[in-house]
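User: Can you help me understand a structure? I only have the sequence.
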Amino acid sequence: MTDHEESTKTPEFPEFNFAEGELLLINKPYKWTSFDVVGKIRNSLKPLKLKVGHAGTLDPLATGLLIICTGKLTKKIDTFQAEEKEYTGTMILGATTPSFDMETVVDEEFSIQDISDEAIYEAVKPFTGNIQQYPPAHSAVKVNGERLYVKARRGEETELRLRDVTVSAFEITRIALPEIDFRIVCSKGTYIRSLVSDFGKQLNNGAYLSKLTRTRSGNFLLKNAFEVSDLVGHLRSKKELPPHQDNN
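Assistant: Let's start by predicting it. Here is the structure, written out as tokens:
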């Protein structure tokens, strides 16, 4: 089977029991929030009134694996959310943005003329193991009951608190300056945007995240995930069938 045939074939869906609880692996689309995905799936299940939630937020500009739980399985969201994560992505060296990604425009630029591949590989070393990082000012972290990104968009400054996280792998996979590709394996709560920003500072330069994909969460893999449109289309088609045909 060719790559094109693999990407265009109709996915096979199991018989779902959403009330008892289903764990759904979803490939979150670019510029969708994690709550957008939850809402889309919840709406496709109507008139069933079910709990639907996700196990680990992905930023709107990120794509990749989002675990969705329904029914009784929502009680296990914290367990799934605590699992180790793997990401691949691209950073842009030589510039910074207030959000540490492409949500906001570049606010400072730096020369990258003298930065060698060797220096880039060396700069990774301080960011493996148990480290501390500040969350981005443009993030969903709550301070006094309000999301940081809400405060940031009002132009308010908030004192950020260091967080302890674990990065078990930080691998540079391609250097084509100003682009640098990477793979990161990390603990729950790690902000890849902050890691990229700190990486730029380690080089006495600047960096921001331009692309991010979650490829794994625990033992769950992106390659096994459904596209939102495919799953929603399947669920809606099942509802449109006459009752005696529903299980055929």
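Now, to help you interpret it: The chain has seven helices and 14 strands. Residues 241-248 have pLDDT under 50 and may be disordered. Let me know which part you'd like to focus on.
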